Amino acid sequence: MKEITASMAGTVWQVLVSEGDEVTAGQTVIILESMKMEIPVDAADAGTVESIKFASGDFVNEGDVLVTLK
């Protein structure tokens, strides 16, 4: 299982994938908002989205697992 983590603390602004979606390496899966800036969170590896841990509007801390891939 591969994990995609938050690179910084912020609010989940937009979730761009759904469970079961295929993602490619470098694809943006979530956009965080912090200090009025949009921060894309990209998949480091290709895989299938197994679970999404947070929804739009949720606050996350740096290092929190946002998405798991299988």
Automatic annotation (TrEMBL):
Keywords annotated in UniProt: Biotin
Lipoyl-binding domain ranges (all copies): 1-70
Matches recorded under SUPFAM superfamilies: Single hybrid motif
Keyword tRNA-binding appears in the UniProt entry: no
Keyword tRNA-binding on entry: no
Listed Pfam families: Biotin_lipoyl (PF00364)
Annotated InterPro entries: Biotin_Carboxyl_Carrier/Decarb, Biotin_lipoyl, Single_hybrid_motif
Name of the protein: Acetyl-CoA carboxylase biotin carboxyl carrier protein subunit
Organism of origin: Fictibacillus arsenicus
The organism's taxonomic lineage, starting at the top: Bacteria, Bacillati, Bacillota, Bacilli, Bacillales
